[in-house]
Amino acid sequence: MLETQDHGAVRELRLARPPVNAFGSALTTALVQAIEVAEQQAAADGSIRALVLSGAPGIFSAGLDVREVTGSTDTAMALVHAFSTLQQRLARCSLPLIAAITGHCPAGGTVVSVLCDQRIMAAGDFRIGLNEVQVGLYPGETIFRVYERLIGPARAAEMLGRGAMVDPAKALAMGLVDEVVEPSWVRDVALARAQEYAGLPPQTAARTRAMVRADLVRLYDTPRESLESLLADGWVTAETRAAMLAALRGASR
């Protein structure tokens, strides 16, 4: 479900939940715990200095597990709470985060990637973007603000409003990803970028990183919408269930 591999001072956390690395409650919670363990180890002995989040060839993550979202109300709420916790953990993570986007990266996959410090994406016939509205999910203002932080207000409003996804070249041009490389190089390049962070003077690097990510952290410190309102009005609704069930039926054909 989640594989861990250390590369010197860089720890790689690899999503390994076939077929599409969907974020169910278990995987989401496992990733939160793995990040916390890495931070604790970093604080204890400094042996871990950066993290790489990677997927499988052709797929980073397809986002939230549709079966859990369309399950019982309790199951859906548990997943949304877990994914909210993951977002907060990523935003506040004390270690540099590099996303190795190994393929398709819609919806929740994009949410995870935009909360990282850098994004390295595979070239090819892949798509990335926040397409929640297409499946009846309301993304919420915090995610919108995180999105516009990278690609600007006008572009974020247009993209989010119609649930648009783009190919790697367009994602690079608009600043949604930082590099596009051959698929077989994605992990290596992401690890190399993480090693660069790991090699910086630690105190100065930490202070500088806290400064440049302070606006991101503030979005989660003072959200304009409560998680309860998002759940009631944007996630656990009849419209959401109908749209996601239709998407699930379409994917299974």
Write a concise synopsis of the structure shown.
The chain has 253 residues and is an alpha/beta fold. It has helices spanning 25-45, 66-69, 73-92, 108-114, 141-151, 153-162, 168-174, 186-198, 202-212, 214-221, 227-235, 238-252, and strands at residues 2-7, 10-15, 50-54, 58-59, 97-101, 103-106, 118-122, 128-129, 179-181. The protein has one domain: 2-enoyl-CoA Hydratase, Chain A, domain 1, CATH 3.90.226.
Please provide a written account of the structure:
This protein has a single domain, classed as Alpha-Beta Complex (2-enoyl-CoA Hydratase, Chain A, domain 1), CATH 3.90.226. The chain contains twelve helices and nine strands. The protein has helices at 25-45, 66-69, 73-92, 108-114, 141-151, 153-162, 168-174, 186-198, 202-212, 214-221, 227-235, 238-252, and strands spanning 2-7, 10-15, 50-54, 58-59, 97-101, 103-106, 118-122, 128-129, 179-181. The strands form two sheets. A six-stranded mixed β-sheet has the order 1-2-3-5-7-9, sandwiched between helices. A three-stranded parallel β-sheet has the order 4-6-8, covered by helices on one side. Helix 1 (25-45) packs parallel to helix 3 (73-92).
